Amino acid sequence: MLRCMLRTKLHMATVTESNLAYEGSITIDAALLKEAGILPYEQVMISNMNNGERFETYVIPGRNNSGEICLNGPTARKGAVGDKVIIFCYSYLEDSKAKALKPKIIKLNEQNKIK
Known about the structure:
Layout: E1 2-14, E2 17-19, E3 25-29, H1 30-36, E4 43-48, E5 54-62, E6 69-72, E7 84-94, H2 95-100, E8 104-107
Parallel strand pairs: 1-8, 2-6, 3-5
Antiparallel strand pairs: 1-7, 3-6, 4-5, 4-7
């Protein structure tokens, strides 16, 4: 059996930009993606602490060490600059590996730098 398990989480990221004119997705600082083990175009779920919105999209890498967290396209309607969001990335694992999984939790400060 495969189980959908939390693999990594970017906790309390701050939205730095909102770009409705873009095709869609979320742009995340490439250094944060590397640390989290999230690949470009990988699916993520975002939970907005300010308004309760929860949505899925895919990741686009932003400038390295920029602190960039940008809601693009329709996701721009799900939050505003300054909102706090939690970004979740899940994996499907066999039962035996799922039981041993320890998710990577990355806590961020106000500038989206790792605490």
